[in-house]
Design a protein that fits this description.
seven-stranded parallel sheet; globular; two-stranded parallel ribbon; binds NADP nicotinamide-adenine-dinucleotide phosphate; about 290 residues; alpha/beta; Rossmann fold; 11 strands; about 15% strand; 12 helices
Amino acid sequence: MLVTTPRGVVGRHVAEALRDRRDVRFLVRSEASAAVLEGVVRGEVLRGDATNAEDVRRAVAGVDRLFLAHPFAEDQIHAETTLGVAAVEAGVRRIVKLGARRFYGGLVPDAVTGNHDIITDRLRDTGIEELTVLQPDRFLQNFLPAASAIAQGTLADPAGSGARGYVDVRDIAEVAIAELLADRPVGGAIEISGPDALSLAELAQSFGAALETPVRHLDVPLDDAWRTDLAERGLSPQIIDGLHDLYANYRREGVAGLGDGVQRVLGRPPRSADDFAREVLRPAALETD
Ligand SMILES: NC(=O)c1ccc[n+]([C@@H]2O[C@H](COP(=O)([O-])OP(=O)(O)OC[C@H]3O[C@@H](n4cnc5c(N)ncnc54)[C@H](OP(=O)(O)O)[C@@H]3O)[C@@H](O)[C@H]2O)c1
């Protein structure tokens, strides 16, 4: 089995679940990620770039299943299609791809969900026998880098006032593992969300309860200042445009429907925002104190 992005937000939980298996190869790009994994996992840690044909050829050799993920980046379509196509040519029969929940109701096309559509079509075109596309809603773990600011009372976010099923990435990883290891995977598109559609104001309340301090949502407009902030953090104009359209769709969608993937695949309800706040956000906030 090949696991990509084993140090990614979702992939690290997939890697953790597979750490004791010898029949897993973990593809890492950076030396730092290789150093973290080596000595922890029993499988093989392979250094390589998902956009490099030779690295990809080595990564997929002898593999039967693939966990395929990649960040939203300029090279995402190239990386995922190169890996996916090479994997099928090398004999992979099952791909579990990390995608994203689609928007409903005729919203503006955005590059984030658009990339996943293009990649998924190309994977289907290979004739792969078993393809699972995980389609999670927004990750609760997106808020972890802001744990300290949240603990000081502000949840700043530009996704507007609608409500959605924010999802704990631990659930996404568990669904991915179940699909990778099952004798008969559920397969197809699997929408994954938390148990409730929450507005950012309600999410702030949930975070505040766990942190034992009032937290309020600050609506960040998608304006020039927002663009400048992202550019200063090193994001390219193309990626900023993609994120702009994604957030604009979050703002337009209003109340998003809930995906039943966790219940369908794992036979249990998804973790709640309260669970995440208590188990993940609070320790992170205390650490950055
Ligand atoms: N955030 C959300 O709310 C959300 C919601 C739904 C869906 N999604 C989808 O989730 C996906 C991202 O997943 P994620 O957040 O788990 O990923 P992530 O954390 O952004 O992935 C980061 C990892 O990607 C690896 N990587 C980057 N470029 C690489 C390359 N060229 N070759 C090999 N490895 C490379 C890096 O490896 P090194 O560490 O070795 O550099 C790094 O560890 C996106 O497709 C997005 O659309 C996100």
